[in-house]
Known about the structure:
This protein is an alpha/beta fold and about 400 residues long. It has a single domain (about 30-395), classed as Alpha/Beta hydrolase fold, catalytic domain (Rossmann fold), CATH 3.40.50. The protein is about 30% helix and about 20% strand. It contains 11 helices and 10 strands. The chain has helices at about 1-25, 50-70, 155-160, 190-195, 200-215, 235-245, 270-280, 300-305, 325-335, 335-340, 380-395, and strands spanning about 80-90, 95-105, 110-120, 125-135, 165-170, 220-230, 250-255, 315-320, 360, 365-370. A 10-stranded mixed β-sheet has the order 1-2-3-5-4-6-7-8-10-9, with helices on both faces. It is globular, with a radius of gyration of 21 Å. The mean pLDDT is about 95. The chain binds beta-D-galactopyranuronic acid. Beta-D-galactopyranuronic acid binds near residues 135, 232, 233, 270 and 275. Beta-D-galactopyranuronic acid binds next to loops.
Amino acid sequence: MNRxxxxxxxxxxxxxxxxxxxxxxxxxxxxxxxxxxxxxxxxKKVKRKDVWEHTRRLELLKLFEDNVYGQMPQDFDSIKYxxxxxxxxxxxxxxxxxxxxIKVFRQQQSVGIHLxxxxxxxxxxxxxLFLLINNRGKNNMDPSRISKTEFWPAEQVIDSGYATAVFxxxxxxPDRKESYANGVLRLYPEQLKAPNGMKAIGAWAWGAxxxxxxxxxxKSVDAKKVAIVGxxxxxxxxxxxxxxxxxxxxxxxxxxxxxxxxxxxRRFGETIEKINTTFPYWFCDNYKxxxxxxxxxxxxQHMLIALSAPRxxxxxxxxxxxxxxxxxxxxxxxxxxxxxxxxxxxSALDASLPPANKPALxxxxxxxxxxxxxxxxxxDWDKFxxxxxxxxxxx
Length: 395
Ligand code: GTR
């Protein structure tokens, strides 16, 4: 019996790895054509920034909304901020810690976001800030700093002269099929019925916009220099947020993969069908139409990156994380360049994927392939901070 079980187990491992191996084979990427970013729905070629801004950009936002991420409702009745904890001598005296409860009300319903924020104590002016969307354990956002992790290395950010804040995705939409609607979606129940209704990823992005509403009121923060950071599913939300909310200055999307920074038409690693099957509550219902039908999708992810232009976008991958398609992510950021060019910005990323641990930096675009596994690490943060620093200094 045990031997039988072991054999079945082995067979299963072989079958799954064969399936994955197949999917990880570059030779099996079939021919595809990326949808044209620079032709409007009326067939007009976009050659100028104003046509991009007033026509094509809006068309693409709507296409992403209707087919991928769902709507982003912005009407609510009121928003309140309450500082629940203030420590003027946090991190051994080098930072100010604030914990803030952000509460948003609409039609007798409310949703609360808990923000943990550190600002450098001796800053002479309002500090630029890195805001992390935390899709992992709450131990990553410990205000007491008893628990310290590389996922949110608050000390590292503070020591570099920046402020940093974090909120947890579960405040907006629990990351579960059964309960994702127990958050923002209580305020917008009509979204649950719409085929292009907001789901979990949209709700997390929505939450980051409410955090920005707060940051704009906090004098210790330079709200014009707020970078959004997200890892994996959080990276998908960060890119969607950047496209929607132009108050964010720059975006760092770590290992965001499928429906993040990677081209879906390559069908390499995770596919639309796989993501919609495992996480049916992340994207709008319409997205399921594109399961095994990528070529019919009117957008691809290079267009999502382009929606951030002219603001900086930096994406990453890890060598051992083929599931997130490093090559397809690099191709997407490269393919976003023509929109940056409309703004007179020559970003000349090399045509081929950079080697591991050698960042490709062509501000406002940046990319690195980190040695290692699917994660957000001190290495990544170090590169993000340097990139932001160099970029802000040149402004
Ligand atoms: C995986 C999922 C990816 C990515 C990842 C993560 O299971 O397939 O799309 O989002 O989770 O968030 O770590």
